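EI: anyone free to look at a 300-residue chain?
SC: sure, send it
EI:
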Amino acid sequence: MLENDIRLSVKAALDEDLGHQDANHNQTSDHRSQADITAQLIPSDKYAQAKLITREEGVFCGKAWAEQVFNQLGGEVALLWHVDDGDLLIPNQVLCELSGSARTILTGERTAMNFIQTLSGVATLTKTYVDKLAGTHAQLLDTRKTLPGLRTAQKYAVTCGGGVNHRIGLYDAFLIKENHIMACGNIKNAVASARNLHQDKVVEVEVENIDELSQALDAQADIIMLDNFDINRMLEAVELNNQYKTPEDPQGYQGAKLEVSGDVTLDTIANFAKTGVDYISVGALTKHVRALDLSLRLQN
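SC: here you go
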């Protein structure tokens, strides 16, 4: 899925800059290079070298997207990488050296950098949150609050920063929320219906209080999301969940994994994790994106 999404998202990004293909989808790489009217100022046989650097520290992500950009532009540019996805970066570090057609380098630079700066920004923020979880067993989860069209890309970036992917979309796991519960009648009915529909899918239930938590545990949900619980209620939830663990019957229901959601910031996440919950989900990882500061410089 990721490989296909990389190809499609890069194509869409290049189309934004260079114009869309015709109805028969037969636009050639040569046609695309000619669409950059500013690059036409440069002789077609002009050879160039360039270096891509970061101006700040962070976590690198986006190698495959940059490579795909220049592949779709005709493969006239060679990329020599000095980093891999997930590597820690320092200011003024060289990420990649490019060599080949000057026109193609300049045509593709912004699209390639857009992907790298965005995905590196996600990976960097993710690591900042993950570092706050040191000393606990809690894992950091992303959400579906992603930039349209970049779902798998951003979720991949989260993993590069040390986070863990929640469900990818609406198809790979159940997340039963307030409106689903209301439509089904109650939590027990909603969980039972989910089990009947897809026995192989994870069933998660969002709860807003301890009473709903008890209902979700009685229904034997796999994961329970504690929505906007304060620390005292988190501690109560962990204690209640532990009561469902039965060492004498290891094959039976052992309680749920507990996920915290809501009011999670860099200031609060460490204390939330210390309550003993299993997961903490943060929408900001993928929706509050601050790009990493990059620069591409042609060499004389």
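EI: The radius of gyration is 24 Å.
SC: 👍
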